[in-house]
């Protein structure tokens, strides 16, 4: 039986796998730096104003005070330049974060270099789709090779390549093992299920109540058998998500986004 302990052993490290979280951390760090710079700038401005209050400009500024003012002004200019660079960086990162939020939870960071790469990948995926071959980079649910005395496990993975001579995909587990390595497997197509993106999932007809499915257990990188309780259109508790019950989960309800609820593969003939 697949108990909760076995599920939580593959908790996803969201800070590493979720680009939105990483971007948000970078933005928060930049905002912290910006706050420190603005505090330092405020101190310099206060010092300059204090000197101007003490000095009689009609009598001239003593050389020592003039040197101090010059240092303050130069420091202020440097801080202003740093502030401008950080603000520009924050604006760029916020723009990327907005684009990611509008696209998919598992999209790559959108910058100028990767935009071109993404277009190239999309074009390649369209060509591959004509022959029903999944393109490299496709997110999939992959059935791990059966290990002795262990239950069947489907994991969240990425397609690395397709080997036509063997009719097998090489896939890579998104999770790291105890040695910090990501395992790769050679699997037959029937053991690899493509995960639709958000738009594709929305366009796909809703699965029926009571239907048995494979679903990604919340906060993990493993898919398990589950039964649909409510489809996204009728789920009032978590609108837009499937309400499901996983096998051997104490009859608890869980909520899973449409792209992570997949039809069970057909039994091997």
UniProtKB/TrEMBL annotation:
Assigned keywords, A-Z: Nucleus, Transcription, Transcription regulation
InterPro entries: SGF29 (IPR037802), SGF29_tudor-like_dom (IPR010750), Tudor (IPR002999), Tudor_SGF29_rpt1 (IPR047288), Tudor_SGF29_rpt2 (IPR047287)
Superkingdom of origin: Eukaryota
Location of the protein in the cell: Nucleus
The keyword Nucleus belongs to this UniProt entry's keyword annotation: yes
UniProt KW Ribosomal protein keyword: no
Domain SGF29 C-terminal: 130-269
UniProt-recorded name of the protein: SGF29 C-terminal domain-containing protein
Organism: Rhizopus azygosporus
Taxonomic lineage from the root: Eukaryota, Fungi, Fungi incertae sedis, Mucoromycota, Mucoromycotina
